[in-house]
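[Discussion] Sanity-checking designs against the backbone

I'm trying to build intuition for which residues belong where. Below is a C-alpha cell string of 236 positions. I'd appreciate it if someone posts a full sequence so I can compare it with mine line by line.
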C-alpha cells in the first residue's frame, strides 16, 4: 500500500490546502486535509492515517505548511536549512519529508512518499480558471482607472456574492486594513476532527474554479506576449 503526503503553501491561512477538498468532493481526492486554522496533534494525525490506511490500503494526505502545535510552534519550524525568509518569518518547508519519515516508522508495510509542491502552486498559469483570468483583468482595469483618477494608498479588492449565482465587483479598500492582515478559513467550515472540510467551504470556493481558458499556443507550447515598455506622460 501507499501513503502520500502533499505539502501545500499556507502559513496561517489554509485556503490553498483546503482547495484539495474540491478533488475529494468530486470523487477522488485526499483522504485527510490539515489546515493551520486548527491546532495540529501529531499522535492524532498518526492515528488518522493508520485508520485510513488499514481500511483502504492507501492514504493521501494534504497538509498546509503552516500547521502548528497548540503552543503555536510550527511543525516544520527549523526543518528547512534557511532560518528566515525575506520578510523575517521563520522559513517553512520540508514538512512533507518530516511527516513521511514519521509515517515510515509507524507504517513499515507502506510505501511512503512526501511531496512538496512548492512555487508551481502559485506560478502555474496553466492551472488558472477562466474566473481567475477574468477577475485578474477586472482588478488590473480597476487599478489603472483608480490611479488615473488620482487615488492613492488604496488596494483593489473584490466584493463577491453567491446568492442567485456568483457575481464579483471591484472596490477600493484602504491599505491600513489590508496590510499584514489575513483572511483565514472559518473554523465552522472545517470538520470537527480537524482533518477535512465541510460543504460550506466547497460552496464558497467552487465558483472560483469555473471555466477552462483557451490559452494561445504555438507548436503545443504557450505563446507569450512580448511587451514593450512605453513611457506615458500626462500634461498638467
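Best answer:
Here's mine. Compare freely.
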Amino acid at each position: 500500500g501507499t501513503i502520500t503526503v502533499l505539502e501545500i503553501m499556507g502559513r496561517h491561512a489554509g485556503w490553498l490546502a483546503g482547495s484539495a477538498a474540491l478533488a475529494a468532493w468530486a470523487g477522488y481526492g485526499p483522504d485527510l486535509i490539515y489546515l493551520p486554522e486548527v491546532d495540529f496533534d501529531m499522535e492524532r494525525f498518526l492515528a488518522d492515517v493508520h485508520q485510513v490506511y488499514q481500511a483502504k490500503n492507501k492514504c493521501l494526505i494534504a497538509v498546509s505548511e503552516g500547521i502548528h502545535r497548540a503552543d503555536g510552534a510550527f511543525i516544520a519550524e527549523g526543518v528547512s536549512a534557511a532560518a528566515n525568509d525575506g520578510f523575517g518569518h521563520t522559513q517553512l518547508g520540508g514538512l512533507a519529508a518530516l511527516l513521511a519519515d514519521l509515517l515510515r516508522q509507524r507504517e513499515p508495510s507502506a510505501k511512503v512518499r512526501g511531496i512538496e509542491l512548492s512555487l508551481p502552486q502559485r506560478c502555474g498559469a496553466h492551472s488558472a480558471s477562466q474566473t481567475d483570468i477574468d477577475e485578474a483583468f477586472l482588478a488590473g482595469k480597476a487599478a489603472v482607472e483608480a490611479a488615473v483618477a488620482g487615488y492613492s494608498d488604496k488596494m483593489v479588492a473584490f466584493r463577491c456574492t453567491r446568492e442567485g449565482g456568483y457575481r464579483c465587483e471591484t472596490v477600493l479598500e484602504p491599505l491600513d486594513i489590508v496590510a499584514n492582515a489575513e483572511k483565514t478559513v472559518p473554523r465552522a467550515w472545517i470538520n470537527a476532527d480537524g482533518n477535512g472540510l465541510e460543504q460550506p467551504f466547497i460552496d464558497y470556493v467552487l465558483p472560483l474554479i469555473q471555466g477552462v481558458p483557451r490559452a494561445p499556443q504555438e507548436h503545443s507550447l504557450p505563446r507569450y506576449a512580448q511587451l514593450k515598455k512605453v513611457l506615458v506622460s500626462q500634461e498638467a
